[in-house]
Amino acid sequence: MDRNIIAILRGVRPDEVVELAGALIEAGITKIEVPLNSPDPFDSIARLVTTYGERALIGAGTVLSISDVARLKEIGAKLVVSPDTNIEVIKATKAANMLSYPGVMTPTDCFSALRAGADGLKFFPGSLIGPAGLAAIRAVLPKGTETLAVGGADASNFAQWQAAGADGFGIGSAIYKPGINRAEIAARAAEIVTAYDAAYDL
């Protein structure tokens, strides 16, 4: 089952990332990003690609430059997530045959991202936009536009976001914080999956 949940492992270290990601995949979360402001992020991403590249969608978050996109392509990443709508980054990502999920907040951001070729829209920070804001913007987006709520979405409010039109989520601190162990991330992942499946009738 391909749940539309991207686990955001901000702050993860290369020496622990394979073990922690394994717990996520076992729980049913098969989309994983390592933000580039984590320790040695390209090392972590390369390890994930080598170990789980056939079983999971692996990529980076907080991607801000086309040079980062090029490096991600070299190590085999498939997913590029950004906090902003950077047209150059989106176009470089698509030229490299990777998935592009730029951060958006306004209708202008949304349409600029889509015109540049974005595969989906990351509504960030979700806590400021809220389900009502997403629903309002969703009404004018092209049919079939993929929308992810990130920053403020967790197991407690998946149903509200789903009702507003969210297709999925990026989950950061609700699933991982630096210092937690495999058992803790497994427990958090199980809670996230249970809530997601209930909200989306899976």
UniProtKB/TrEMBL annotation:
Source organism of the structure: Amylibacter marinus
PANTHER family for this protein: 2-DEHYDRO-3-DEOXY-6-PHOSPHOGALACTONATE ALDOLASE-RELATED, 2-KETO-3-DEOXY-6-PHOSPHOGLUCONATE ALDOLASE
Pfam families (alphabetical): Aldolase
NCBIfam families: PRK09140.1
Pathway assigned in UniProt: Carbohydrate acid metabolism
Record-linked SUPFAM superfamilies: Aldolase
Oligomer status and interactors: Homotrimer.
Coiled-coil segments: none
Name the record gives this protein: 2-dehydro-3-deoxy-6-phosphogalactonate aldolase
Family: Belongs to the KHG/KDPG aldolase family.
Keywords: Carbohydrate metabolism, Lyase
